[in-house]
Amino acid sequence: MSDLICIGAIAGSFGVSGEVRLKSFCSEPTDIAAYGPLSTEDGTRLFHITLTRPVSGGLGARIKGINTKEQADALRGVTLHVPRERLPSLPDDEFYHADLIGLSAYDTGGELIGKVTAVYNHGAGDILEISTSRHKSALLLPFTLAIVPNVDLAAGRIVVDMPDETD
User: Fold this and answer.
1) Which pLDDT tens digit goes with each residue over 69-101?
2) Edge-to-edge strand list for the sheet holding 49-55
3) What average pLDDT is seen over the chain?
4) Taking phi first (over 0 means left), then psi (-120 to 50 degrees means alpha), and beta for anything else, what does residue 121 get?
5) Left, alpha or beta for 67 (phi > 0: left; psi -120 to 50: alpha)?
6) Which CA distances in Å does 25 have to 50, 68, 101?
7) pTM for this structure?
8) Cα angle at 73 between 71 and 79, to 5 degrees?
9) How far, in Å, CA of 149 to CA of 128, rounded?
């Protein structure tokens, strides 16, 4: 499990005075500003963020030290991370995406399927990408209780009840 959790990204500049457009990955989007300074994935840069307003496709924000459109544009695509200890504990049936990536995936018979390589959410729920040698391409499976009835973070594994059409 990673010590840093990605909670957002800078989508580019907004306006001409250094304001940025943020994409928040928090369940409550405005919570992104409540976790203190955010960092790059490697932890080498810190960003002190103040939200300004909702904007199309995200949130408007000011970042300390960013005063021009060019400086804001240069930050496009930067992901924003926070140390795990600053995030709230989750109930037993909820997981941070970072905790799922890298887990081994087994079928209900105990046979290794592959590894979770990514978690996507395009608005209709989480989708697990599982790399596997069983199929020509990676599997994309809904992260639901019916498909993934067991997640064991301590053992580093999930159990997948494969839908019939993927066998």
Assistant:
1) 999 999 999 999 999 899 888 888 888 888 899
2) 46-47, 38-39, 79-83, 4-13, 20-24, 58-63, 49-55
3) 91
4) beta
5) alpha
6) 16, 25, 16
7) 0.76
8) 100
9) 13
